[in-house]
Predict the 3D structure of the following.
Amino acid sequence: MSDIAQKVKNIIVEKLGVEESEVTPEASFTNDLGADSLDTVELIMEFEKEFNLPIPDDEAEKISTVGLAIEYLEKHIGK
Amino acid sequence: MAFKRVVVTGLGALTPIGNDVPTYWSNLAAGVSGAGLITKFDASKFRTHFACELKGVEVTQYIPRQEARKMDAFTHYALIATDEAVKDAGLNLDAIDKNKVGVIWGSGIGGLKSFEDEMIDYAKGDGTPRINPFFIVRMIADSASGQISMRYGFRGTNYVTVSACASTNNAIIDALNYIRLGRLNMCVVGGSEAAVTKAGIGGFNANRALSERNDSPETASRPYDKDRDGFVMGEGAGALILEEYEHAQSRGAKIYAELIGGGMSSDAYHITAPHPDGLGAFLGMQDALNDAGIAPEEIDYINTHGTSTPIGDPQELKAIYQLFGEHSFKMNISSTKSMTGHLLGAAGAVEAIACIKAMEHQLVPPTINHFTDDDEIDSRFNLTFNTAQERSITTVMSNAFGFGGHNAIVIFRKPS
């Protein structure tokens, strides 16, 4: 697992209070991990803070699963 | 329409001298101070270095971590005290009409630390706001009553009263009236405060309300003593279950006390200083007696607002003398803030509990830390200095006054 993927997982475990085993790439924040709309906003903000990367609102709206978050971050970090 | 009667059937306390009602009461009766040096932040550059903090509270024993982190401490305290009160009331949540159970809570300030932390964090950045989405819901004072309702499914009247240090008594009086009118069968009332923070201590230091007796925190809260120099900040919560009398009887509930009246008034004088003749306090206590329909001579004990400030303490006694006359010297008076510190918006909650336990045990908790008589204070008052006093207690009055000139007073009676 990439360093980015591990950090993303850690943030999700911490913020949503879920087990790491539940944080699979397919897991949806709202449908599978119990997040409400405010939790999702907070997660995006935590990603921005952790990776020092502003995520525009229209992009953030599309990040609905663990996999999509990792994919987005891996694509945009360090560029 | 005849008013319905309102009784108290459950109690919960989270205080600087005890994390539950039995511990709180035994320390009140024993005259224990809850004051000590501030541990929550480095207060060395503040005028006051001490407060009455809570001790050894494990929030996650009561609230799952994931929920707890979305709440300010004042909401944690509210939920913890309510948990004890609901259990104490022996409520079977499946057997009551939860649509007729309200929650009316009091908080003077709300989520002060949440506000502080977020803005400190913001100030460290470049001006781009990265405000946490839970910031507002942590901070707003009404989140306490909202969270209580969600936890138990209580769908009746729900809000928070804000009248500084009178907040909880206002909450109690509102609930009294709703239950009297038959609008609610039960109501969770109480108050919580968590203002031992940089802004809380710094702010009350700035208006010179706090004691600065840094060399002796545990003797700093000394209401009616000649050398009192301000109040000591406390934190915590108190919760009471108020219930319509017949509702309580029909479910065989333990009845601690009857809430027989509440009085309210305003000083209309100054934003922080009390009226020099204690006019607002007088009117509020008079209103409470009228509401309860009792004579002044029926009051056995007054738990005063008595915060240990130079101006406030004698003015309250002046008002008591004006209203009660010679009976002022026959009743017991004490300020339990000498032990708990001043819990601001939650003061009325923990003091109502002190009054109810005093009736149960027929014991008046003391005003501790009395060293030197004050010439300004008539020595004929029995201020219950230093040691608890046994006496027959049937009816008690609890006073709460707040910045803004708000006065709210409640009267409880021992069940017959």
Summary: The interface with chain B takes residues 16-17, 38, 41-42, 45, 48-49 of chain A (CB under 8 Å). Residues 37-51 of chain A form the longest helix (15 residues). The mean pLDDT of chain A is 93.
